Amino acid sequence: MNANQKRAWFNLGVSLLFLITFFALLFLKGFPWPYAAFLWALLFVVHFFAFRGPNTYDERDALIIRKSKRIAFGVFWVLLVGSSMVFWTFHRNGTITVQADIVPSMISFGTIVIVCAESVATLLLYQIPLKSGRE
Fold first, then answer.
1. Is 115 in contact with 18 (CB distance < 8 Å)?
2. Model confidence pTM above 0.85
3. Rounded to an integer, what distance in angstroms lies between the CA atom of residue 130 and that of residue 135?
4. Residue 90 to residues 47, 77, 83, 85: CA-CA distances in angstroms?
5. What is the CA radius of gyration of the chain?
6. Are 82 and 21 a contacting pair, CB within 8 Å?
């Protein structure tokens, strides 16, 4: 298992820990307690220090990193546009009021979507043979 795979598993673990903590605090305590779960998101910073070392990437690793980032942002944009269209569909004739407390949750869940999609794509792309050349 190389550094990219270790980083992907670490990010999936932190994301799962964040989601479990957020929803447990939401159902047990109510707002604003779930924002304490954002402290787990600080562990994403740890991977910059925990997985440092010599850069031993080859062309295949670079291709996997590039493809997994492309997949992650594709998933994020599909979910962002889809959720926007759902709000537009249900509130087409009027206005919708969004509390300011929702904005940090939206940003954090967008980050979790990107991190999880990139990590899953990284792990899956290491399992399948990639074609040579730019893709």
1. no
2. no
3. 9
4. 40, 20, 11, 9
5. 18
6. no
The CA distances from residue 94 to 57, 77, 83, 113, 127, in Å, are 53, 25, 17, 29, 49
Query: What's the CA gap between 124 and 135, in Å, rounded?
Result: 16
Tell which phi-psi region holds residue 130, choosing left (phi > 0), alpha (psi between -120 and 50) or beta: beta
What gap in Å lies between CA 23 and CA 109, rounded to an integer? 12
CB 8 within 8 A of CB 15: no
The tens digit of pLDDT for each residue in 28-65 reads 887 776 777 777 667 767 766 666 666 677 888 889 99
A 10 A CB-CB count for 95 gives: 5
Note the pLDDT tens digit of each residue in 113-132: 999 999 999 999 999 886 65
